[in-house]
Amino acid sequence: MTTDVMTRTTHSAGAGVGPAPKAMLWDLGGVLLDWNPRYLYRKLFGGDVAAMEDFLANVTTPAWHAEQDLGRSVMEACATLAAEHPAQAPLILAWGERSEEMIGGVIPGSVELVRELRALGVRQYALSNMEPENWEKRRRAYEFLSWFDGHFISGVERVAKPDRRYFELALSRFGLAPGDAFFIDDREVNVRAAEALGVPAVLFEGPEALRAELVGRGLPVAAA
After folding, report:
1. 23-32+107-216 has which CATH code?
2. Quick one: pLDDT at residue 202?
3. Which one, of 77, 70, 73, lies nearest residue 160 by Cα?
4. Sequence spans of domains, the chain
5. Four-CA torsion 207, 150, 75, 66, nearest 10 degrees
6. Which value, in Å, is the radius of gyration of the alpha carbons in the chain?
7. Which segments of the chain have a pLDDT < 50?
8. Using CA atoms, how far apart are residues 186 and 127, in angstroms rounded to an integer?
9. Model pTM?
10. Is the CB of residue 157 less than 8 Å from the CB of residue 132?
């Protein structure tokens, strides 16, 4: 999952595409769920934004978090890191204990697209880098996660985006050829990895832009 909104690459909706995709592959964090650890850590750091950013960059680092996306226990990872940084132990332990406070809610326009495509009978799959424990919490908490025809969660599968094997295994699991699917993610590196395998993909730039993209690709969702 990603953190703050980044500068997006512009894609022309539907430019040079072929038949409408047979299946949709959805990232979750940053596309359907508004995940950002700053939602939690702004509370814990108060107004000290610089200290918060230093903590997220240099203590709970992206590399540390990536280990959890590959299946390492969140609480074990937090306990180990807290022992290495005892002065910041409460902040580190909060990463595991208060993980759901990192979610600002669903991204309504995106979830509505999932709903519309489901009503149209389009196959849809969730492809997410996520910790196993948090995946179990979220699939119970958010009804829309039950709408998918299948899920491929990095922490469960022990392989994560943008690893080529992640996409190969997901496509095999769901019986899809690369050209059958259309992948949506909010990280450029993941989009490029899918495209390198022959999976049409788009960088998520917001629900309205995505809706236009899907219309341009021949999917009969309502135009904005």
Report:
1. 3.40.50.1000
2. 97
3. 70
4. 23-32+107-216, 36-102
5. -60
6. 18
7. 1-16
8. 12
9. 0.89
10. no
